[in-house]
Amino acid sequence: MSDARLADEEQPRKRAPWGVIALVLLTGLALIRNGSGEFDIGPPQPAAAAAADSRAPEWAKSKAPEPLPFALVDRVRIPAIRVDAPVTQVGLDAEGWVDAPPPEDPNLAGWFTGAVSPGEKGTAVVVGHVDNMQGPAVFYGLGSLKKGNHVEIRRKDGRTAVFEVYGIDVYEKANFPGKKVYGSNGTPELRVITCGGGFSKQSGYDGNVVAFARLVSVR
Description:
This protein is mainly beta. 10% of the residues lie in helices and 35% in strands. The strands form 2 sheets. Strands 1-2-3-4-9-10-8-7 form an 8-stranded mixed barrel. The chain has a two-stranded antiparallel ribbon with strand order 5-6. The radius of gyration is 16 Å and the shape is globular.
């Protein structure tokens, strides 16, 4: 798949409505996991206690950093699950689907350029494969995140936006809550998404794991 790159690196693309983003991401991340039997246990799935509560506590509202301006994305780090990966730009292809990062590279994530950049006011979206035909990929461990874990996004303006996870959940693709996942509450937020749930060789994964995080610091 080809990357959708920004025509002007100083300005983001016209942003897609959340309903469109939900539709394309549901189908764009369904991958086939390794058929060797080595990973039959499958990737970790979120615990029920980790489900997101979208109501921001008062401390989060009062201590939230000021939103950052637009900037391209360089890397994503999630220390709790040992993720340290470059980020490529992914956008809508000619048929209106989101281009996922190339599956041949297991350690590569994608920032969806149809949403805000991480740190801007609104909800940024980073996607990545859970596995490929060789085994686990960049976001294989996403479902094991816990509330309070951090996701660090290094931007190409030299700043690192640090987000704190406040929820991690898995949703069936057929009932994906697009408004809950992609909706903005007016503060800088981040969603990290991969495949999850049940798996079949015929249809791949039947759900998406979603980590909900909000901006807590900039360095």
